[in-house]
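One chain shown below:
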Amino acid sequence: MSKKISLIGAGQIGGTLAHLIAIKELGNIVLFDVAEGLAKGKALDIAQSSGVTGFNVNIVGTNNYNDTKDSDVIIITAGVPRKPGMSRDDLLGTNLKIIKQVADGIKSTSPKAFVICITNPLDVIVMALQKYSGLPTNMIVGMAGILDSSRFKYFLSKELNEPIKNIHSMVLGGHGDTMVPMPKHTKIKNKILVDLVKENKISKSKLDEIVNRTRKGGAEIVKLLEKGSAFYAPAASGVEMAEAYIKDQKKTLPCAAYLNGEYGYKDIYAGVPVMIGKNGVEKILEIELENNEKSNFDVSINAVKELCNAAAKIDPVLGK
């Protein structure tokens, strides 16, 4: 029996998610948006491409939460995207209100779904989503680390003239300017990135430049687009998480997950390596961090905590 995948928000990421999920035939798709015509139009357009690409899944657009009832997977992109000059954090007040409505909808229609959140500011929004919905923490995750890692790997592949499939890395921490790329946990053809620096295959200054570009990867795209923010890479990242759950792949992916003592933190969502299978987040992997990595991770977590405190001022329920 086909899985039911509901996409909350039919904007650029939502539409791209629907297209990728259809091509991969991961399940039947419900594209939800408060703008009914947008959801229905994109769903119909994607459905009409099936005669070309040959996928066999059902896809519908709707503005009625009841149509998402009993979803197996829900991916949330609903919210306001960034404009040039805005940080992800500037979106907090507006997107908290939107996520509360989404959480209420999920709680009443699909309380057993695996929920992936892409809405920014990511870490605090996924925390709010869990508190508002009351779903188990292992069934709600945020998509960020996969996207940030993909950007890091892309920039390295271009600099080192190395196929991206030969680069293995992950970016941890909060999804913002304090995210933590991990050069010591980055391998290029089984060589550790820091060793390539020692061998002068890449300079320390160039690596620092790439780390900084990774942290500001979203802002660079926002500035270029002028109207809107990244959507192809975020959608591809969200699909990888959904596929790991649907196919019980037990795949290790960097995601914003609920920490309950791991890495020395409790009751907070942050980017860490997790194993995703049919039970959602089945395990959080604690990799050993060296002193500077740990201090950078701490800085990132503190930035997430500040945002959580700001959210609690907007809605005191979130501080409980």
In short: The longest strand covers residues 266-277. The chain has eleven helices and 14 strands. The first helix runs from residue 12 to 24. The chain has a mean pLDDT of 95.
